[in-house]
Amino acid sequence: MDLCLKGKVALVTGGGSGIGAGICDALAQEGVEVAINYKSKKDEAVAFADELNLKHGTCCQAFYADVSKVDDIDRMVAEVISAFGHIDILVNNAGVWPTEDLLDMPDGNWEKVIDTNLNGPFMLSVRVARHMVEAGIRGNLINLSSKSSLGYTTGGHAHYASAKAGLNMLTKTLARELLPHGIRANAIAPGMVRTPINEDKWTDPEVKRSYEARIPSGRFALPVEIGYAVAFLASEKSFNIIGTVIDITGGMLI
């Protein structure tokens, strides 16, 4: 199915690796020009952008920003608009996922997770939405939530789960307030996705089977499969999906 996204411009935070890279790949497959945000490993992000250009014949570029910092966000948005002319799609994917017991968690660690996983998406969404309104763009804001935002099954992630739950409500408020301007907002909640951050879980066959046993679909999702859901939400094919958090956990929330 042609999603009719060719020529659109997307800004994907944390787009250089993991789920973000899968999202960038899926969008580039649809002919989207992708601004790939990175916080570290500049050379890898630039090389990835070049790889997508060669693979899909589109125009992708890498842009630095720490999404927890307002000055970085303002500069990145200006640079992306200068490079591409406009932004049609924003994907708030960048996030941190530390593991630490609630009773031992320093205040600063809580604040860091909230700043990156919730405050960053808010600040970036508002700035990109202002650009869309001023330019008359019927755009899409897509937030990467998590199954942890809908049910807390394992310990050690109180800050992460709280931030993602807040992101769900932020998605609804963005949708409600921006829809009159022709801007849709939605979120997706992945479950277990095979990325470098959890690659160690595949080295021990028993550990691998124990994790897969928790997933009704029988396996971890691939990053590009998360990207396919993002591409659909960014298209007019999903016109009537508004302010929704879509479960793409492979059945883990059944």
Keywords:
7 helices; alpha/beta; Rossmann fold; 254 residues; 7-stranded parallel beta sheet; single chain
Count of discrete domains:
1
**The named CATH superfamily:** NAD(P)-binding Rossmann-like Domain
Which fold name fills CATH's third level, the topology?
Rossmann fold
Structural class determined from secondary elements = alpha/beta
Question: Could you report the average pLDDT, rounded to the nearest whole number?
Answer: 93
Q: Count the helices. How many?
A: 7
Radius of gyration, Cα only, in angstroms?
17 Å
Broad shape: globular
**What is the name of the CATH class?**
Alpha Beta
Which quaternary structure do these chains form?
A: single chain
What is the level-2 CATH architecture name? 3-Layer(aba) Sandwich
State the end-to-end distance: 28 Å
Main β-sheet, in a few words? 7 strands, parallel
Helicity, as a percent range: 40-55%
Order of helices and strands: EHEHEHEHEHEHHE
Total strands: the figure is 7
User: Uncertain spans, ≥5 residues at pLDDT below 50?
Assistant: none
**Strand order, biggest sheet?**
3-2-1-4-5-6-7
